[in-house]
Design a protein that fits this description.
Structural class: alpha+beta
Radius of gyration: 17 Å
Distance between the termini: 19 Å
Oligomer: single chain
Number of strands: 5
Shape: flat
Strand content: 25-35%
């Protein structure tokens, strides 16, 4: 899975959606309660609140042998939105990041090379890139 995140202290999610003309896959506001899944082995005694506002566009989990398959799905949607993204960044003082989430099963690892098209776009909009790697056997 890969997702693009616009995050910051507090900004109007509906305005970002309107400027980009893209519906987010997920969004939340700073201060919202984090709803944790029910787990009979864990007793929840405290309420945890969101520390930032976040607008996300995600591919969802997909079986793949190359992370660029997911990254290009995001790029195909976002590459023609550079001026809008820069406007959002300047106007709302937000940050951008691409998150790449890799689940490895049966020691089958995907290709993990960031190609020039992606690197150039990340540089243009001044975004970060993070990886989450989970190994299941």
């Amino acid at each position: 899975m890969a997702y693009f995140s616009i995050f910051g202290d507090d900004f109007p999610l509906d305005k970002v959606t309107q400027i980009l003309n893209i519906e987010p896959t997920r969004s939340y506001k700073k201060g919202e309660v984090i709803v944790r899944p029910k787990n009979d082995n864990v007793i929840i005694t405290t309420t945890i609140y969101r520390k930032e506002t976040d607008w996300e566009l995600s591919t969802g989990y997909q079986e793949s042998t190359d992370i660029n398959d997911q990254l290009y799905l995001l790029l195909d949607t976002l590459e023609n939105k550079v001026s809008e993204l820069i406007r959002i960044k300047d106007e709302y003082k937000v940050s951008f990041t691409f998150m790449i989430v890799i689940n490895i099963e049966n020691n089958e690892t995907p290709a993990m090379c960031l190609e020039q098209r992606f690197i150039s776009f990340v540089h243009t909009i001044n975004a970060g890139v993070d990886f989450d790697l989970y190994i299941f056997s």
